[in-house]
Structures are given as structure tokens and as C-alpha cells.
Design goal:
By secondary structure, the chain is an alpha+beta fold. 42% of the residues lie in helices and 24% in strands. It is extended, with a radius of gyration of 39 Å.
Length: 885
């Protein structure tokens, strides 16, 4: 079967010409396959070896017209013999496994001894015994390539044919042997990679069980590698980027300087270190860790630092601190009583016994009602219990009776202590003092807790006073009176604060608080909740209409001018949300929350609006909260959110010159959601930082994948909110993306809306300049409709402007929009800004913009936002050089 072409060529070329041509074609295809596989193996990775070997085997079989092909490898095992593994087979693994079942490995190795490098195995004839090789080939004729290294059989490659007619040329023979040896080499790579991955998996499991994370740092390259468990210790997700400044920021402020000093000292000495410190996680939790570091010098002289960070269990801390806590509670002047969830007394301190007259022995294990003579109706205690369990605590006065029989009023704080689940396990009762006046009109509340700017009570004190007003009604006239809560928002505060500055914003807030007092509202019933929101408590309402007088007095404040000094005079209006007890809630927290919900409804109605709470608002608020929670899950999971890409096209040449990344949410029930269905919720919930980070990371990863596939890359614009600029870590995140995904200059552009454009302070300009040095340009989106000042626009190092779609939509008709569009084009040309028109939807808009000098267009006239696979097909047609606009 393995003969030279010259020997096998018959004398009669007319009869053999067709067969000769066929054999040459088979050998030529075999040589081409060998070259193709060699290039593929060079680029192969450990985790793709299995698929690459299968592809190679099937390509070779197709080239030489084999009916079957298989590759057997001797895998190392626990003993000396190991085992035979079917790496690939054209008929699938199961038939080969059946042939290998019970197969003698010793017999196979003995049979391989003395065989040529390519062994011709003939078809089994009737009545003749079957050899091991004929058995492996299923009785068909074929070729067997036993691959022996240092006297040991490493692998077997075999091909079976329907007809015994293959003629190998010298080149074909060499190509087949080369392929066989490449297969063995890369099988070893696959085995080593599998063993390495298994070992890494075991290390990860051990780290997880021990609460230990590992890290490696190469000072010369600033490369930091961390394990998944270490990210978990620092409160990060597995896909989150991590860098040294972030680790330093996670150190507890009280430990940070000590830790950094010790690390700096060890770096200077070239030594390792061991220390214990606290971490402050993103969610506010604290975690104590033990840090161990070692340093090694590599062969090239560079230092390599590596180490472990282990979470220190709370048990040791509690064991050390329990005696201290017990001593502190014993020495407290306030009385402390701990009740079980069913009201049994678990613990009292000496101060509690002194204040009530009961001994600890008499109270231990008893139900609290057995030793408490109530001077309140039962509804009062139900209110205290509900308030404590729902919001975590209750503060007020409780009228009781001393063991001597004398009436006494205690100032009390009740706190719910929960177990790891949601249920309340204990109630801690703190007696903060005895009230001398036995019958106050309102339960006294602890003093202090006031807003530093306005001098009004703050949110915490407001909640306590609302609770106190409810408690009075429960104890006296639960059926006839109501409590009103009004939440106020200043309509025009943000423009004043942004344009005049925080100093004048603070003056406006202070003056507004003073006018609330002067319009006849009691100081004690007012509060500043935060920012530009205020609260008014209206106790003892006989009906809802009684709140109207207070509301009108508040709304009349808009008729008065506020003189903020230096000639600045402003008029402001307010929006109000109103909630009433008991219709809209039975706790202070619930009333305040529902009044705030009504306020948001009033703000949606426009300036100077009032809205009373109703139950439908709760349903809408609940739906909004559910959407926000689902979005949080989607951001953490990272699977439901996707980026689509809308092409930006040169209208003159039709070439693709850029992309805009647009986020989509694959909702489990509602399908694919566009940004207008969820981004407003993300903004309200403070999730825009996470959305921006996700979009930037996904876009960077996609660019890297396209470039890795050999595709041309065009600039990708990613929308970023103003919050990301203000947060202060945008630059660090972009730096990590550039390093992680090897981004080139011009790969990514950041789009910021005109309304979100910050004032060009030195800090802002320095940030944008640093981003530009990374090769990332700044694009102003929706240009032409916002509030940016043309007087300082030229000071920004911008790359592009995007003409707003509302202006583009208006250029169909002659009018102002055409004039504005031409003006923007001329201005961009004068300032050397690039220009993109978005929202181009018809030929008339495209033609006008092109004639006006704006040739880069984006919109449905060219294409909608497409998935990455569709964009890939467009990128294939591009040259590998940079796109030209």
C-alpha cells in the first residue's frame, strides 16, 4: 500500500492517468493539511487542544479519503502501565471505547516493537486470525503509526480505508509523520493543562474552605494577580477588576497608616511581613484579616512578592471581648433588660434592678408582664412591639409602677436583635432615665440630634417625634384624631446650588428653614431630612382638611424673595407630599416613606404641586423597587445585561468608521428591554456607576476579542454618566481596562451628555487630560440642546461632538434647526472637533447633513443597534488599518 509513485505507475498511462492524478491530489491535500495544522497548533491554547486534535485528525482523514481515523494516547496512571485513552475518533468515542474494553496494553506495546514508522495493515482474510492492529481498525485495511519515544509507546494514530489503494509520495509520507508527532506533543500539552487546571481548582477549593486568598505582585511590571477567594474577602465579584489603590482604600481608616508604614518598610528592606488589620468593605461591613507576605528574587534579578490574606474568625475576637462587654454593661448607669422573642427575661444589669426595685433572681426566666404593672392601654404595647420589629428600634416614655407601688415614668429605648435570618431573636430594653413629670402632654424625646446648618431637628429626631405623636393618640383618642406628615422639596434649589455655588445654596436652605418657623409652625414639629427636603409634623388633626391651612402657609413662601447677599435674589416654589395616620401607616417610618412617595408624585406633576398619598402609589413604588432589585441582580450576575452596537457610517464612502455601545437588558419575563425602560431606575437608585463600569468593561472585552480574531477595530463610544466623573475612580477603572485588554489609542471613546458637562475647573481638566493620555477620547453627546457654555467649550480637550437627534429630525423642513445644525458644523470645524450626526432616519436628512459638512452619520437610515455577531460580519469587510472618516 505504501509505494512510490514511480514504481506503481503502469506503462500504459492512458489507463492509469486518472488514478495517478487522484493519488497526486490526495498527497497534495495531505501536505496542505499538515501546513494548516502546524499553524493552528502554534496558536493553540491548553484548553483547546482536544478540539484542535479532533479537527486535525478529521482533516487528515478527509485529505487521504480514509473511512475512519483514531488517535490513541497512553495516559500516565497510578502504576507503570497507565491506560489507553481515545483522544479522537471519526466514528465517535463510544465504538472505540468498546474496542479498547479488555484490550491488553502489554500486547499492544509488544506489537509496536519492531514496526516501521508507517505500518501497512492489510484487510483480514476469511479464516485468518486478527492481529491487534487489524482489531483496532475493525478488520479494514489501513495505516498504523506507532509513535515511540525513548523506547516507550506514547501514542497510536491509525486510518482505515474501504479500499486498499492509497499511494504515499515522499512528501505525503513526511507530512503524515509530522502530523503524528505534532499530535503527541500537543496531547502532552493538553494533559499538562488539564493537570494544571485540576491543581488550580483544588487550590481554589482549599482557599475557600480556609477563608484564605492568595496574591502575586511583580514590582517591575506593576502586575497584580489575585485569586477569586481574595476578591471575595474584599467584597468584590469574580469579574471585578482589582488594583493596588483599591486595596489601600479598603483598609480601615484607623489601621491604614500603620499598615502602609509596615509595608513600605518591608519593601525598602526587601523582606516579607505579617500583620493583622481590618478591612472596610463596599457595603459598610468590617472584616478582620491576617496578611502574610514573602519576597523572592527571580533568576533575572527582579523581585517577586506573593502572599496570603486570611479572614480571621469572629470567635477569637468575641472570646477576648466578651469579658469587657460584660463588665461595661454591669457598670452602666442605664438599666438594661434583654427579653426573648416570647417576652421571657434573659438578662438584667444592676442598674435595671436599682431603677425598678426588682432583683435579678426574681426576674430571671419570668415573663415580663408578670412584673410590669401597665399604665397604658394594650394597643400602646402593640405599637411599641410593631415599631421595634419593623424599623429596628422604638424610643419614648413608658408609664409603669415601681416595686414599692409608686407610679414612675421611664425614658425607654427598645431595640430588636435579629438572628442571621430575618426573624427577631431578642428585644433589648434600655431604661435611659426616670421622668420626674408624671403626665407630660407629649412623651419626652432625647435632646440633640439637630441639623447643623438650619438648627432644625434632623431625620432621626423627626421619626422619634412622629412616633411620640402616634403613641399619644393610641393612649388617649385612637378613633378621633389623626397625625399628619408633610414632606417638602424646594423646586428651584438645584439650579441655585449649581449656578451660584454651595455657599449660596446653604444660605437658601437656612433662610427657608427660618421662614417655616416664622409662618407659624412650631420649631419642634419641623425637621430637615437632608439636601433640600424638609418635614412638617401636624399632630392632633381632627380631619384631613385641617392640614390644608398648614399646606397653604407653606406654599405662600414662594411669594417672598430670598436675598442671598451680594445682590442675589431668588424666588422659589415647593412641592409637597402628605401622609396621614392611621390611613397611610401606623409607624413613623411608614408615614414618612409614604409622604416621600407622594412628594415624588407631586414633583412629576410639575412645580408648586401638592399630592396626598394613596395606596396606588405604594403599588407603583413597589413595582419600581422590584425593577431596581432585579437590575441589581442583573448587574451582579453580568449575564442578563448585554451591549449592542449601532454603526457610525461615512455617508460619502459608506464605510463603517465607528460604533456606539448601547446597553440592553434581557429581562426574564419582559424580554429585551431598551435603556428607557430601566436606566432612569438605575439613576434614581445610584446604580449608574455600576452600569457604567459594566458597559466600559464589556466594550473593552469585545474590542479585545475582535482584535484577537484578526478583525479590524473601529472606535467604540461608550455612554458614561456624570456620576462616574464625580465618583473619582473613573480614571483608575479605565487604566485597569487598558492594561487588562491591551487597548490601543482610539479604541474607546467616552460619551458624556451636554447637560452633564462639568465646569472646566483645574481638577476636571486634569482628569480629562489624564483620560486622553490613555488614548481615550471624550465625545459630547446630544449637543445643541443642553446648557453648556460655548464660552468655555473650547477649553475642553474634546475629540467629537454629536448633533442631537432632535435637531437632526428638524432639518427635513427649512427653519431654525437647519441654521443651528450648520452653525454646529462650522463651530466643530473651527475648533477641530470631529462630528457625528445621530438619529439620521431618511435620505433627506443624510443629504442635508453631508452637504453641510457633517459626513459621519448614525441612525436607522443606516442600521439599528446590532448584536456583536452581526458587527463581526461588518468588520470582516474592513481593511486591517485604522478606519478613515
Amino acid at each position: 500500500m505504501v509505494r512510490s509513485l514511480s514504481e506503481s505507475a503502469p506503462a500504459d498511462l492512458n489507463k492509469a492517468g486518472e488514478e495517478y492524478t487522484r493519488q497526486r491530489h490526495r498527497n497534495r491535500r495531505l501536505c496542505q493539511t499538515a501546513e494548516r495544522c502546524a499553524r493552528a497548533f502554534v496558536a493553540s491554547k491548553g484548553d483547546t487542544v482536544q478540539g484542535d486534535l479532533e479537527s486535525m485528525l478529521f482533516l487528515v482523514a478527509d485529505a487521504i479519503e480514509a473511512a475512519d481515523a483514531l488517535l490513541l494516547v497512553l495516559m500516565p496512571g497510578g502504576g507503570q502501565n497507565g491506560r489507553i485513552e481515545a483522544v479522537a475518533s471519526q466514528q465517535g468515542p463510544e465504538p472505540v471505547r468498546e474496542r479498547l474494553a479488555g484490550f491488553s496494553l502489554d500486547a499492544l506495546m509488544s506489537s509496536a516493537t519492531g514496526l516501521p514508522d508507517i505500518y501497512h495493515c492489510q484487510e483480514v482474510l476469511a479464516g485468518q486470525p486478527m492481529s491487534d492492529w487489524q482489531y483496532l481498525l475493525g478488520g479494514k485495511p489501513g495505516l498504523v503509526l506507532p509513535l515511540i519515544n525513548q523506547g516507550k509507546l506514547k501514542a497510536v494514530m491509525a486510518f482505515a480505508f474501504e479500499l486498499d489503494d492509497l499511494v504515499l509520495s515522499r512528501e505525503g509520507r513526511s507530512a503524515l509523520l509530522t502530523l503524528a508527532h505534532m499530535a503527541v506533543v500537543f496531547t502532552d500539552v493538553g494533559v499538562l493543562d488539564a493537570a494544571l487546571q485540576c491543581q488550580l481548582q483544588r487550590v481554589a477549593e482549599k482557599e475557600q474552605l480556609s477563608g484564605t486568598g492568595s496574591w502575586d505582585f511583580y514590582p517591575a511590571t506593576k502586575l497584580l494577580r489575585v485569586s477569586p477567594q481574595l476578591k471575595q474577602i474584599f467584597g468584590l465579584q469574580e469579574n471585578d477588576a482589582i488594583h493596588l489603590p483599591y486595596l489601600a482604600r479598603c483598609l480601615h481608616p484607623d489601621d491604614r497608616q500603620r499598615v502602609l508604614d509596615q509595608i513600605t518598610s518591608s519593601l525598602a528592606l526587601g523582606e516579607g511581613y505579617q500583620l493583622e488589620c481590618r478591612l472596610l468593605l463596599p457595603d459598610g461591613r468590617q472584616r478582620r484579616v491576617l496578611v502574610r507576605s514573602n519576597v523572592e528574587r527571580q533568576v533575572n534579578g527582579e523581585l517577586w512578592r506573593h502572599g496570603l490574606i486570611q479572614e480571621v474568625g469572629l470567635t477569637r475576637q468575641l472570646e477576648n471581648q466578651l469579658p469587657l462587654y460584660h463588665h461595661v454593661i454591669e457598670q452602666m448607669t442605664e438599666g438594661v433588660m434583654v427579653l426573648s422573642s416570647v417576652g421571657l427575661v434573659e438578662f438584667v444589669n444592676p442598674a435595671f434592678c436599682r431603677m425598678t426595685g426588682y432583683s435579678a433572681e426574681a426576674l430571671a426566666g419570668q415573663h415580663v408582664k408578670n412584673h410590669h404593672v401597665s399604665r397604658h392601654p394594650p394597643a400602646f404595647y402593640r405599637h411599641v412591639l410593631i415599631r421595634s420589629c419593623r424599623s429596628g428600634s422604638w424610643v419614648g416614655e413608658v408609664r409603669s409602677q415601681h416595686v414599692s407601688g409608686d407610679p414612675v415614668t421611664y425614658q425607654v429605648r427598645v431595640t430588636a436583635i435579629r438572628q442571621e435570618g430575618a426573624s427577631v431573636r431578642y428585644l433589648a430594653v434600655l431604661l435611659q432615665g426616670v421622668v420626674t413629670d408624671p403626665a407630660p402632654a407629649m412623651p419626652a424625646i432625647r435632646q440633640g440630634s439637630c441639623d447643623a446648618l438650619t438648627g432644625l431637628p434632623d431625620r432621626n429626631l423627626a421619626l422619634q417625634r412622629i412616633d411620640a405623636a402616634i403613641a399619644v393618640l393610641i393612649g388617649q383618642h385612637p378613633q378621633s384624631l389623626q397625625v399628619g406628615v408633610v414632606v417638602i422639596n424646594i423646586d428651584d434649589f438645584k439650579p441655585v446650588n449649581d449656578s451660584l455655588g454651595h455657599v449660596y445654596g446653604d444660605k437658601l436652605l437656612k433662610a427657608f428653614g427660618q421662614r417655616l418657623v416664622r409662618c407659624g409652625l412650631e420649631h419642634g414639629n419641623l425637621a430637615r431630612l437632608g439636601s433640600d427636603e424638609f418635614c412638617v409634623l401636624i399632630p392632633n388633626l381632627s380631619c384631613a382638611d385641617d392640614a390644608t391651612d398648614v399646606i397653604q402657609r407653606i406654599r405662600q413662601l414662594k411669594q417672598q424673595c430670598y436675598d442671598l447677599d451680594a445682590g442675589f435674589e431668588v424666588y422659589v416654589s415647593v412641592c409637597l407630599g402628605v401622609a396621614l395616620y392611621p390611613q397611610h401607616g401606623d409607624t413613623a417610618l411608614q408615614l414618612l416613606s409614604n409622604a416621600d412617595t407622594a412628594l415624588h408624585a407631586a414633583k412629576r406633576s410639575g412645580r408648586d404641586s401638592v399630592c396626598y398619598y394613596h395606596n396606588d402609589m405604594t403599588l407603583r413604588a413597589a413595582a419600581r423597587l422590584e425593577r431596581i432589585n432585579q437590575l441589581r441582580v442583573a448587574l451582579q450576575d453580568g449575564q442578563a445585561l448585554r451591549l449592542f452596537y449601532q454603526p457610525q457610517v461615512n455617508a460619502t464612502t459608506g464605510a463603517l468608521v465607528g460604533l456606539e455601545a448601547l446597553i440592553r437588558w434581557q429581562h426574564p419575563q419582559e424580554g429585551l428591554l431598551l435603556p428607557d425602560r430601566f436606566l432612569s431606575h438605575a439613576h434614581d437608585a445610584g446604580l449608574m456607576l455600576e452600569v457604567d463600569r459594566f458597559s466600559l468593561q464589556q466594550a473593552a472585552m469585545q474590542i479585545w476579542q475582535w482584535r484577537d480574531q484578526g478583525l479590524a477595530v473601529v472606535p467604540v463610544a461608550v455612554n458614561v454618566s456624570q456620576q462616574s466623573f464625580v465618583a473619582g475612580n473613573l480614571l483608575e477603572h479605565l487604566q485597569s481596562l487598558v492594561e487588562r485588554f491591551d487597548l490601543q489609542a482610539g479604541d474607546i471613546e467616552i460619551e458624556l451628555t451636554e447637560e452633564a458637562l462639568l465646569e472646566p475647573t483645574p481638577q476636571v481638566l486634569a482628569l480629562i487630560a489624564a483620560i486622553n493620555r490613555l488614548g481615550i477620547g471624550l465625545v459630547i453627546d446630544d449637543f445643541g440642546t443642553g446648557y453648556s457654555s460655548l464660552g468655555y467649550l473650547h477649553r475642553f480637550p474634546l475629540q467629537k461632538l454629536k448633533i442631537d437627534r432632535s435637531l437632526v429630525a428638524g432639518v427635513d423642513n427649512a427653519g431654525d434647526n437647519r441654521v443651528i445644525a450648520r452653525t454646529i458644523v462650522r463651530m466643530a470645524q473651527e475648533l477641530s472637533f470631529g462630528l457625528v450626526a445621530e438619529g439620521v432616519e431618511n435620505v433627506y436628512q443624510a443629504d442635508f447633513l453631508s452637504r453641510s459638512g457633517c459626513v459621519v452619520h448614525q441612525g436607522f437610515w443606516y442600521d439599528q443597534a446590532l448584536d456583536p455577531e452581526s458587527i463581526e460580519r461588518m468588520l470582516v469587510a474592513l481593511p486591517t488599518g485604522p478606519p478613515s472618516e
